[in-house]
Design brief:
The protein has one helix at about 45-55, and strands at about 10-15, 25-30, 65-70, 70-79. By secondary structure, the protein is of the alpha+beta class.
Length: about 80
């Protein structure tokens, strides 16, 4: 019969800032019609989409930004 020993660890959660981490990305969605910008790492390009969309649709005043931020979890040590 096999047995396993587990130890309790305290885990830490934090944004992943390692060099190989996925980039933070932005996306904008029009709350009026549901149209969405392309997802990108350059917020300026996403904001340009929003302003072009608002210019083409003068009654579309509200938008929701979605951020995707990489996170990581790692054990800090025993509990």
């Amino acid at each position: 019969m096999r047995r396993a020993v587990f130890r309790y660890l305290v885990w830490v959660s934090e944004p992943d800032r390692e060099p190989d981490a996925a980039p933070l990305t932005h996306r904008m969605a029009c709350d009026v019609c549901g149209a969405t910008s392309p997802t990108g790492v350059d917020f300026g390009a996403v904001q340009d989409w929003q302003l072009r969309h608002a210019g083409a649709n003068p009654s579309h005043h509200t938008y929701t930004e979605t951020l995707t931020r990489p996170w990581r979890a790692w054990p800090r040590g025993p509990a």
